[in-house]
Amino acid sequence: MLSLKQTRHLRTVLIGSLAWLVALAIFFPIFWMLLTSFKTEIDAFTSPPQLFFAPTLENYIHIDERSDYFHYAWNSVVVSFGSTFIGMLLAVPAAYSMAFFETKRTKNTLLWMLSTKMLPPVGVLVPIYLLFKDFGLLDTKLGLVIIYTLINLPIMVWMVYTYFKEIPKDILEAARLDGATPGQEIYRVLLPIAKGGLASTILLSLILSWNEAFWSLNLTASGAAPLTALVASYSSPEGLFWAKLSAVSTLACAPILIFGWLSQKQLVRGLSFGAVK
Amino acid sequence: MANLTIRNLKKVFEGIEIIKGIDLDIKDHEFVVFVGPSGCGKSTLLRLIAGLEEVTSGHIHLDDKEITDMAPAKRDLAMVFQTYALYPHMSVKKNMSFALDLAGVAKSEVESKVSEAARILELDHLLERKPKALSGGQRQRVAIGRAIVRQPKIFLFDEPLSNLDAALRVQMRLELARLHQELNATMIYVTHDQVEAMTLADKVVVLNGGNIEQVGSPLELYRHPVNQFVAGFIGTPKMAFLNAQVKASDAASVTVALDSGPVYTLPLDGRTVKVGDVVTFGVRPEHIQVADAGVSEFSVKLDVTEHLGADTYCYVKAPNGETLTVRASGDYMGRYGQEVSLVPELAHCHLFDAEGRAIPKPGAPAQAA
Ligand SMILES: Nc1ncnc2c1ncn2[C@@H]1O[C@H](COP(=O)(O)OP(=O)(O)O)[C@@H](O)[C@H]1O
Ligand SMILES: [Mg+2]
């Protein structure tokens, strides 16, 4: 028989190993992509795949010659930050009224908003495309900002609502009695308390917008195309070039990965929903 | 000046009337306690006064100003919440100065008001801390401090002590009483605990089901409850209620026969009852004595006895199964199951008619039904 201490130790080791396994499984594709991006196209095709090879920068040089990476990167930055910013401007007041002035219909409204996420995007592609064409929004950053805001809004409202729900109503009422206007109540009391949750909402929205491919591929040509469109352009009819595709994907993921890594503490705290107390 | 006048105040939540037409006057410097069982609408009434809930109908005046529909901040009231509701991201000092900062009060004045409040509440050494780093009692004091700095016309408290442990509750109760004297303020205090109501109040408002049952000083309520609800609610242990029937009555006395045996004549104005009426006989544990079996006609059986030191509470059972509590001296030793007899002090006993209304003392003004 194991002693209680031993059992506990064993459990820690098991859970730890499992976590590592899962993490490795998730990380492996990224690692492989990074590795492949430094291979020649020939090395990339060798079977069985090699772990050791002579690294080369030729893929990156090729990409730099063929396309303007920073043009696409800038588009990605503008549309993800822009849509996140506008999304938060709308989500905070919406979540505020839903969390603190709840009515019988609030829960249904929230569910209804989320349910729009269940619709396959391709189902509304044609109407949206036509709308964008009529309003001159095709291949514009503004168009993407609008569509990303609308896509992510339900999730943002839901998340912010969840964080706000954790904040005792009394605190806001105290502020109201202390003479705070609704604006002051939100900016000086509510937002500072919920900042952990808001940060992770912002982060999630940035990541979702950054990685969005369906709408960006269908609604942009080159002018407003973000990095996802750049990646897609490398899997073109000329045939698949694995190494180059890996290199361009690495370049597309890198900014958001670094950004996410820098703010992971914030993210973990926000996602664990322990924002207050 | 802080005279609050409430007239025919009603509040409906989702079609249900929670506050059913309250009339109440609160005078300057009074310590008024709203007491009643939980769910009776105490908090709702307080929140209506504070402006945190919208009034359905009726009027609230503060001095000669109507505040019924005024924004909470404009009413010149401060509230201390049951959960304290401190701003978790602000230091103690910021918590207390928030209202003044919002009002644009000069820095030096804010500084002096906060330090004055901190001195009164002995919070000086905690000013830089965040609420998280405070004990329950300290948080409570910060919440009170936040109210004090605003120098409101009326302080509102919603069960401020209910989250504290028993010892701290007694201490904070004393501090609140002292604060009331020191600030010479008007306070409205909500509690479900009748001991807090009795110890703190100048005026107790007993609420039940959205109505006021009785308003009066603690002793008035204790001595002259207008109905059975108030009689049962005020006083610990509770007043015992025994079924009885009227045998004779006139303007100065009522004779009743208890279902449990004895016949008593009480000095009450019996003109509102007639012979044969079913009534309830009420007696507090402290107004009845235990004696050896056979001493009186009211013979009962001892159930459990509780020795508290100074007093002993005897739970007794009448022959017809009715139970009552009796207070005996600390050295009273009764055996479980022992036959004893009871001697009530008839001058302190109460009678309630079939609707639960108290039968008044002779000469007392007739109670409004
Ligand atoms: N915002 C609200 N919506 C619906 N019902 C409410 C609301 N606030 C209070 N009530 C109801 O009003 C009644 C009285 O509540 P409350 O004033 O909090 O009681 P107390 O403070 O005396 O315990 C309760 O039955 C409660 O369910
Ligand atoms: Mg309450």
UniProtKB/TrEMBL annotation, chain B:
UniProt KW keywords: ATP-binding, Nucleotide-binding, Sugar transport, Transport
Transmembrane segments: none
Single GO term (MF): ATP binding
Alphabetical list of InterPro entries matching this protein: AAA+_ATPase, ABC_transporter-like_ATP-bd, ABC_transporter-like_CS, ABC_transpr_MalK-like, ABC_transpr_MalK/UgpC-like, Mo/tungstate-bd_C_term_dom, NA-bd_OB-fold, P-loop_NTPase
Record-linked CDD domains: ABC_MalK_N
The keyword Transport belongs to this UniProt entry's keyword annotation: yes
Keyword Hydrolase listed: no
Domain ABC transporter as annotated: residue spans: 4-234
A UniProt-annotated Pfam family: TOBE_2
Protein name: Sugar ABC transporter ATP-binding protein
Organism: Marinobacterium zhoushanense
